[in-house]
Amino acid sequence: MSQPPRLQGLLAPVVTPFQSDMAPDAGRFVRHCRWLLDSGCAGLAIFGTNSEANSLSAAEKIALMDRLVAEGIPGDRLMPGTGACSVPEAVQMTSAALKVGAAGVLMLPPFFYKGVPDEGLFRYYSQVIEGVGDAALRVYLYHIPPVSQVPISLPLIERLVKAYPDTVVGLKDSSGDWNYSKSVIEGFAATGFDVFPASETLLLRGLRAGGKGCITATGNINPGPISRLYDNWQGPDAEALQHQVARTRELVQKYSMIPALKAIIAHFSQDPAWRPVRPPLVELPADQENELLRQLTEQGFDMPGIRGAAA
Amino acid sequence: MSQPPRLQGLLAPVVTPFQSDMAPDAGRFVRHCRWLLDSGCAGLAIFGTNSEANSLSAAEKIALMDRLVAEGIPGDRLMPGTGACSVPEAVQMTSAALKVGAAGVLMLPPFFYKGVPDEGLFRYYSQVIEGVGDAALRVYLYHIPPVSQVPISLPLIERLVKAYPDTVVGLKDSSGDWNYSKSVIEGFAATGFDVFPASETLLLRGLRAGGKGCITATGNINPGPISRLYDNWQGPDAEALQHQVARTRELVQKYSMIPALKAIIAHFSQDPAWRPVRPPLVELPADQENELLRQLTEQGFDMPGIRGAAA
Q1: Do A278 and B87 make contact, defined as CB atoms within 8 angstroms?
Q2: Biggest alpha carbon distance in chain A?
Q3: Among A18, A202, A204, A284, which is disulfide-ready with A242 (CB 3.0 to 4.6 Å)?
Q4: Where in chain B does DSSP place strands (E)?
Q5: If pLDDT is split at 50, 70 and 90, which confidence band does A2 have?
Q6: Are A89 and A97 in contact (CB under 8 A)?
């Protein structure tokens, strides 16, 4: 199969709702995905860190993905997270993503062992790519050292791009370290390697340097303004739009991100069923939630169209 | 079902051999397990850190475990690692371990998110225990902060023991921090909570304080002398035996542990098929392997009965 068009712009690492029995809530998930696309997201990075992906089994993730596509979400708007600690499980998830026509996959390195050599990480990506064995595959490397504790070094990127130039085509940078994003863009963007910082606070800076958008947690709640900044990044209002979205982001990231996003969706959609998280995460304490919502409201924050869409 | 007898003494976190196509090598695995039991191991902590457990899929692990039991290894000598990042996957592996009559399971906390609250870890263990729902279950908590980066705090142990007194019955301490082992023993051993340091260098000290043995990587290669120390810990030779096993351990742990263990087994069993490791690990470089084997031989180290047993 040939590769679908590349995703660029705002991608949301979609939060995963749970039913009262803690099973994934496919209905709410599909409705939230639809709202995100309707609100300006170019793509859906389902099964990322903010999706509690590693707290879901492979079977649960595959069922959610199949349901999305069955309900009309285009497969080529998806960039599912498919990395795992084991090669066979990463191959299984990646193959499932290709089956629904995903535009690409966002692939964590194996994250149990720490201090592993680049040679071992190269073998992992190589064995997954060759195990999947499909020319339609497009891999985005997932650099998130604050969580995975396993960084993706520049020499590793270079080696992977050289070995798999049509397959290893980008990276999400969740390091929060602009110098890293910049080095990757400077080193590889010219040859068609797409870099996505993990926060809209770096969106304008990233685009000006040669990045391709952002894959950001707060894309789940603020897709309109963030995609407006992406669409107008060369326009006269870019700095003002950047300032506005950064203000919201900076407020939300003072709290534990995943429960905070779910509390915000629950509040603005008037649907408390959005709040639960799976272990080892816990919901925001009520006082924190109240303070967060109070400050958001004070900023004039809103989620247009979310009522009924998310519920 | 009722609980099998508790395991005490030396447990080996069994290394997992791979075929040339990198699939698990069930034949060599069974033979190595048999050699370990014949050489003094009280139990087999299959699917631990040293087993590359997280580099195996659940299906691969369950197939290996079923094969062990089918080939006559008693289920009640097993303490399989069953912890996972997701509750459903931990429930699946734990249920499979109970199905073969395992004496207990060694359970990692979910290890993707870092800095998670004890409340979230309590919910994880609680949901796994209740999801399995079997009175035969015996859980040993797995404290390995250098790798998992998610420690098991004393208040968490206390809460779990109080909530599940017949189920949460012990802990493996891979912190390398004797003060932690000592605190857990002092806090909980009196009520039947079994603590196993993760190195034979702490075996005598642990037993004297009230620990129950050790679950140690080098149990894979040196089970005879380590179990001799366990059997004679109150005898006149205890200090000399402790000194001897510590000398071997200290040599081996200068190298990357898992590839070093496999190189040692390959050498002493004259079976080079033992060497491969899965990504993200890599084999020992030849110069390191040669130096390690030279120094072991100089110490008079041997693996009696391994030829033919491991091959």
Answers
A1: yes
A2: 52
A3: A204
A4: 9-12, 43-44, 105-107, 139-143, 168-173, 194-197, 213-215
A5: confident
A6: no
Q: Per-domain residue ranges for chain A?
A: 9-298
| Domain covering B9-223, topology | TIM Barrel (3.20.20)
Interface of B with A (CB under 8 A): 22, 49, 54-57, 59-60, 85-89, 92, 109-114, 116-117, 119-121, 123-124, 127, 146-150, 278-282
Cα–Cα nearest to B118, from B84, B141, B137: B141
| pLDDT over 80 at B1, yes or no | no
Let me know how long chain A is. 311
ipTM rounded to 2 decimals: 0.96
| Angstrom distance (rounded) from CA A95 to CA A90 | 8
- Using CB atoms within 10 A of its CB, is residue A191 exposed (0-12), middle (13-18) or buried (19+)? exposed
- The letter for the amino acid at A240 is A
Q: Test B110 with A55 for CB contact under 8 angstroms.
A: yes
Task: Give the contacts of B100 (CB within 8 A, at least 6 positions apart).
Answer: B65, B66, B68, B69, B75, B78
Query: Which tokens is A216 given?
Result: 């950001």
One CATH from 3.90.360.10, 3.20.20.70, 3.40.50.2000, 3.40.50.880 for A9-298: 3.20.20.70
Instruction: Name A294's Cβ contacts closer than 8 Å, sequence gap at least 6.
Output: none
pTM flag (> 0.90): yes
The confidence band for A311, taking pLDDT boundaries of 50, 70 and 90, is low
